[in-house]
Amino acid sequence: MDKNIILESDAKNIDKVYSEMLYSLLLIIIIFINYIPFYIQYFPYFQYKNVSIKKSVLKGSGLSMQKNIFKKVAILYLIISMMLILVGFTHAIDADEIIKKFTKVYKNMKNFTADFEYTTLVAGKKRVSFGKITFQKPNLLRQEYFEDKDSNKVTQLIVSNGKELISYTPMIKQVTKQDISENEIFLVLGQSFERIDKDYNVKLLKDELAEKKNIHLIELIPKKKDNSAMFDTIQVWVKDEDSIPTQVMYKDNKNEATFFFSFENVKINNKLDKSVFEFQIPNGVQVITVPNK
Question: Per CATH, the architecture of 16-289 is what?
Fold first, then answer.
């Protein structure tokens, strides 16, 4: 997918409440995924695609590098979700107002589904993955990664039934699982909003190609200039008429890493069967139970 091509508007008269609900629900989904420790530690697909991974690999020095990379990716999920909320209020970026609006619209949300494309550029190497997210309040989740955009072959599956979170990687025949706490998730959620206003400056940038399609480019820059800042730049492209994000970019100059996220076929408040959030562990796979921190 060409990252200079921004999705056209699907409708010109989308209700504003629909947009706000979308931003808020995306936030819950991504924070939910980001918060679970084992999802950061045991997510080998991107790093080790088409490589046979043995248990000894996870014990070596490579584990430290793997953890570092995926911690940044997990935080990227978090920041993207914050931006999805923020861009819905381009003309009102006061943190208090954003939180109040989020609290109001969140009460009306039930579930969310979307297709996504995730591209990483690290040290000149490009990786592209495709998938689908299904989420239902308060903590039911199904996230599937596919071999390619048109394939039904799942390479990574993340499922939460509300009690435990399970990650299944068919390629290495491994399942990791961990008990989850709803209260912990919402605690992190509250802290995340506070960090937006305190740690980042937001501004509107010029993008002639995007502006021809009535799309605006918003940039997020960390206020701190020391090593505590995890990111150098985050950019979000949003539609003019409904402020729905079409593309998100995160750049880490120190590690020569750039990440892109895009969403398609977004649907909310559909009727979902509970079986969507259930997973039967296959026979013959390694099961790792990760203790809560």
Answer: Clam (2.50)
Between CA 211 and CA 191 the distance in angstroms is 34
Give per-residue pLDDT as tens, 9-56. Answer: 333 434 454 555 555 555 555 544 444 443 444 444 444 444 333 443
